[in-house]
């Protein structure tokens, strides 16, 4: 028997109970067995050279410096910076694949792909200063693709999309010398500067970590979102379903997991094709059911309405239902534990990225040129595998959700085709119906009661008229709690409720995948413009990642903060090993860039802090309203428990 922290999700709990003590274990049982290392979790372990590793710290009996003399502050700052570099690299390498796929499509080398949003392509071409009179979308796509591919190897100048930020923010970045030049350059420079014996000034190093993170938010992630819209269409609001109950008992289940929606889009097209469904019927199934996990789920959900089987923490549990014929994975957040779980069932685990092999999985590396054939091979494999199904148990839990919100679709929803704009949102923020906006992003973590912090923070925020925009696994968790439907407005405060009911939107808007956090930056810029403000740091907007897991969450947080939006983390703070550096990330960054980091271990603390920052920013704008704060007492908090 292992000690585990149970998630709040009933579907997950049912599977966990069924597999307790059997099979290779899972993320929850492993988290119960392995204690987090207290030195590593505070960032004060350095293993950058063979004179170490050095465990340093501020406590009694700890050495304050490493063998090379590096201080605890420097070591913690370096570790933090390396997380930013890794997170930025992950988002941006994803973006590179998207650009290359766009180029292959433009050159007629990618038979499974086409240009689905020619309008978006045209507006991008205009923005990039390209020849907008070019009528052939494929030719235009080639020009746009070449221009954006050059953003990766650029050595100087400024990234194109950094120019989307308000003028005042751009000027601040220039003054601090943190405007990103080239995406790859910033990552490489940060890795160099964190090598043993290079940058030894925590503040100076953090400037480069801001620059690198900005190359993610206003570079890699933004390029990925924009070009995925061009290739697969821009999302618009639609309904779908979430949780393990979306797996089918009588159809061939294909689960798509990871981050890059390139091959998955082609697989989905086949899964919806009547001819392929006939093939599945010939194999004894009722058809094909394709569902998602993690961020590929968010991508396919936003554009196609493909149901979501679960978040990051449900990947092994989905296979444990016995109902998954094939799980297709590419990059990021794919647990190595999957192979062991798949081996206990009939599931074929298929890896599709040249960059990511998993021992025990079938390897089928994606290229834009072979996507059509490869998708066919995978769907064929799934149909064939249906015959090998053993015992199946699918927990009967699924909920509706509304998705597809983007900076553009929100503009349309608020004002319609002809008067679309952010003015109604600005008016409602000014008149206090909407107190402010919280961007809830990031992962879900088995170190705490998974899902609980998301659900509790959101409920408290919306009860206090804070509109929530959510991405990644945080959004999936919110959906599983029934927070992504218009009816959830009943839980909102009177102001937010009125707005949601008038417009017909949920109080929590699903804004997509991890790279789609760049859409939140776009929306924030439009708010600045529509509100007649000068900078993002004036907005009553706060970000949080209460259940963060991944280094990508740190990169996202750092680009939010460097853009003027404060960010709170739950679970653990990665720099807690150095008081001075943690204070720097909070107060000194606030002085430098108008926003800082903060940590709150409880939902109540997180909600308080977010509302406090929003109130403070409202006061600065002179738009504070005297409405009573809804304070959650113990009784109300108990009701939040699920
Ligand atoms: Fe220790 Fe310095 Fe080497 Fe880090 S770089 S392991 S602190 S000697
Ligand atoms: S998938 S980065 S667990 S949100 Fe983007 Fe979820 Fe976090 Fe991976």
Radius of gyration: 24 Å
What compounds are bound to the protein? iron/sulfur cluster, Broken Fe4S4 cluster
Mean pLDDT: 95
Q: Please state the overall shape, judged from the principal axes of the Cα atoms.
A: globular
List the helices and strands and how they pair.
Layout: H1 10-19, H2 27-33, H3 38-42, E1 45-46, E2 54-55, H4 72-106, H5 118-127, H6 137-153, H7 167-176, H8 183-193, H9 202-232, E3 238-242, E4 252-258, H10 262-271, H11 274-282, E5 288-293, H12 294-304, E6 308-310, H13 315-320, E7 326-329, H14 337-343, E8 348-351, E9 362-363, H15 371-386, E10 399-403, H16 407-419, H17 423-430, E11 436-440, H18 452-463, E12 466-470, H19 472-480, H20 494-503, E13 508-510, H21 517-530, E14 541-545, H22 551-562, E15 567-569, H23 579-593, E16 597-599, H24 603-621, H25 634-640
Parallel strand pairs: 4-5, 4-7, 5-6, 7-8, 8-9, 11-12, 11-14, 12-13, 14-15, 15-16
Antiparallel strand pairs: 1-2, 3-10
The structure holds iron/sulfur cluster (SF4) and Broken Fe4S4 cluster.
Compact description:
This protein has 642 residues and is an alpha/beta fold. The chain is 49% helix and 10% strand.
Describe the structure.
The protein has 642 residues and is α/β, with parallel strands linked by helices. The chain folds into four domains: 46 residues, no CATH class; 161 residues, Substrate Binding Domain Of Dnak, Chain:A, Domain 2; 145 residues, Rossmann fold (3-Layer(aba) Sandwich); 223 residues, Rossmann fold, CATH 3.40.50.2030. The chain contains 25 helices and 16 strands. A six-stranded parallel sheet has the order 6-5-4-7-8-9. Strands 13-12-11-14-15-16 form a six-stranded parallel sheet, sandwiched between helices. Helix 4 runs parallel beside helix 9 and helix 5 crosses helix 9. The longest helix is centred in the N-terminal third of the chain and has 35 residues. It is globular, with a radius of gyration of 24 Å. Bound molecules: iron/sulfur cluster and Broken Fe4S4 cluster.
């Amino acid at each position: 028997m292992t000690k585990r922290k149970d998630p709040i999700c009933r579907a997950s709990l049912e599977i966990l109970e069924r597999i307790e003590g059997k099979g290779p274990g899972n993320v929850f049982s492993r988290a119960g067995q392995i204690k987090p290392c207290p030195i590593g979790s505070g960032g004060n372990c350095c293993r950058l050279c063979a004179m170490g590793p050095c465990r340093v710290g501020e406590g009694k009996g700890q050495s304050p410096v490493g063998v090379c003399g590096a201080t605890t502050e420097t070591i913690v700052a370096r570790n933090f910076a390396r997380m930013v570099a890794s997170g930025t690299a992950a988002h941006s390498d994803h973006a590179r694949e998207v650009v290359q796929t766009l180029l292959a499509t433009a050159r007629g080398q990618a038979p499974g792909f086409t240009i689905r949003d020619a309008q978006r392509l045209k507006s991008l071409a205009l923005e990039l200063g390209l020849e907008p009179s070019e009528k052939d979308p494929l030719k235009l796509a080639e020009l746009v693709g070449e221009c954006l591919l050059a953003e990766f190897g650029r050595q100087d100048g400024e990234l194109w999309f950094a120019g989307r930020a308000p003028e005042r923010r751009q000027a601040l970045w220039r003054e601090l010398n943190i405007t990103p030049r080239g995406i790859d350059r910033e990552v490489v420079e940060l890795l160099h500067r964190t090598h043993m014996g290079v940058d030894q000034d925590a503040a100076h190093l953090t400037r480069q970590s801001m620059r690198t993170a900005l190359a993610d938010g206003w570079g890699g992630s933004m390029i990925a979102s924009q070009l995925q819209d061009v290739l697969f269409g821009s999302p618009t609001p639609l309904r779908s379903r979430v949780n393990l109950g979306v797996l089918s008992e009588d159809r061939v289940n294909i689960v798509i997991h990871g981050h890059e929606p390139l091959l998955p889009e082609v697989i989905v097209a086949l899964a919806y094709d009547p001819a392929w469904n006939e093939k599945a019927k010939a194999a004894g199934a009722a058809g094909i059911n394709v569902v998602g996990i993690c961020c590929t789920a968010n991508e396919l959900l936003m554009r196609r309405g493909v149901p979501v089987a679960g978040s990051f923490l449900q990947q092994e549990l989905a296979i444990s239902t016995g109902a998954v014929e094939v799980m297709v994975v590419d990059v990021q957040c794919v647990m190595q534990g999957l192979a062991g779980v798949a081996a206990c069932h009939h599931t074929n685990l298929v890896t599709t990225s040249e960059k990511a092999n998993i021992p025990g999985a079938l390897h089928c590396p994606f290229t834009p040129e072979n996507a059509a054939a490869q998708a066919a091979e995978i769907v064929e494999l799934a149909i064939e595998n249906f015959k090998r199904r053993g015992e199946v148990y699918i927990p009967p839990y699924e909920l509706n959700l509304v998705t597809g919100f983007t900076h553009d679709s929100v503009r349309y929803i608020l004002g319609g085709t002809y008067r679309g704009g952010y003015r109604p949102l600005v008016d409602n923020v000014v008149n206090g119906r909407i107190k402010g906006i919280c961007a809830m992003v990031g992962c879900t973590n088995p170190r705490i009661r998974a899902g609980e912090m998301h659900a509790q923070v959101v409920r408290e925020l919306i009860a206090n008229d804070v509109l929530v925009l959510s991405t990644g696994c945080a959004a999936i968790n919110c959906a599983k709690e029934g927070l992504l439907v218009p009816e959830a407005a009943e839980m909102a405060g009177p102001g937010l409720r009125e707005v949601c009911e008038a417009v017909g939107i949920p109080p929590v808007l699903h804004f997509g995948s991890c790279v789609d956090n760049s859409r939140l930056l776009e929306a924030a810029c439009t708010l600045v413009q529509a509100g007649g403000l000068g900078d993002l740091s004036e907005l009553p907007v706060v970000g949080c990642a209460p259940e963060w897991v991944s280094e990508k969450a740190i990169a996202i947080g750092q680009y939010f903060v460097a853009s003027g939006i404060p960010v709170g983390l739950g679970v653990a703070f990665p720099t807690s090993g150095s008081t001075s550096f943690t204070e720097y990330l909070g107060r000194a960054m606030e002085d430098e860039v108008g926003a800082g980091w903060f940590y709150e271990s409880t939902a109540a603390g997180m909600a308080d802090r977010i509302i406090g920052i929003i109130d403070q920013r409202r006061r600065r704008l002179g738009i504070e309203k005297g409405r009573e704060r809804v304070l959650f007492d113990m009784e109300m908090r108990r009701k939040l428990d699920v």
